[in-house]
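Changelog-adjacent note: as of this version, every example in the card shows the full chain rather than a window. The one below runs 135 residues end to end.
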Amino acid sequence: MNKSLLFSWVTSLIATLGSLFFSEVLHFIPCTLCWYQRILMYPLTFVIGIAFYHNDRKVYKYVLPFSIIGMIISAYHYSLQKIPFLQKFEMCTSGIPCSGEYINLLGFITIPFLAFIAFSIITVMMVMLRKKTTD
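Full-length structure tokens:
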């Protein structure tokens, strides 16, 4: 059993179920950047899950582009929420503003922050998997 794959899969599963909980149970409407993050996270649940089942240690080749781009988008999204100056460059012009915060736990934990943590964990696990595979 590969712990990096398992931890990555569980992380992506929690992130996917969490985002579905926010939208389907709590009825939070996702903004444009939330949709981009979902587009990157949801497939990871299946790709990493299948890789874990088959013990495919080379899955990092497919996962890293998604997780790194997801980190960048979620970091930008979080910055829009927490740095007022950046709100001038907000791309969400219709519907829900990307700078809006449905949750703000402890003054810094927002939904994009949670997405950033999930993408970061997956990225670190995939880099570790890559190092184990190439050694």
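Structural remarks: The first helix runs from residue 3 to 25.
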